[in-house]
Design brief:
Radius of gyration: 15 Å
Largest sheet: 9 strands, mixed
Number of helices: 3
Strand content: 35-45%
Order of helices and strands: EEEEEHEEEEHH
Helix content: 10-25%
Number of strands: 9
Structural class: mainly beta
Amino acid sequence: MLLLLFEIGEGRYALTSTEVVEIVHLVRLRRIPRTPDYVAGMMNLRGQPVPVIDLCRLVEARPCARRLSTRIIVVDHGAGPQGGYRLGLIAERVTEATRTDQVRLRAGGVLMEEELRMGGGGEGEMVQWFDLDRVLPADTIQLLFPG
């Protein structure tokens, strides 16, 4: 399984490559009125409006550092009659993808205490599955994607 690795503060997290649509540089965002402070704004992705969440602000109550490796991870998230919705996630040190022998995802989220051991010999690097459903409040999804 191919995973995209990124950081939120001191924590290292992973998304499966099947969740990721693309990775883009930080762009200018248009503020969305009456949204929580972790909603960084809205970006225009080839004519499609995509709301963007600052994961550091959501998880650690501070904005993601503006580094060369800070990126917006665009995910196709949610399930519904029309398939889902696009959502941007600002994260730090979005620098690599890696493979793992792990074939089944465990329940995760940022509070997960279990660790994922990466394949490839040795003990590997410890990372946590990032489960947006468990991290992002449902009322925020309703606010950003009414109906």
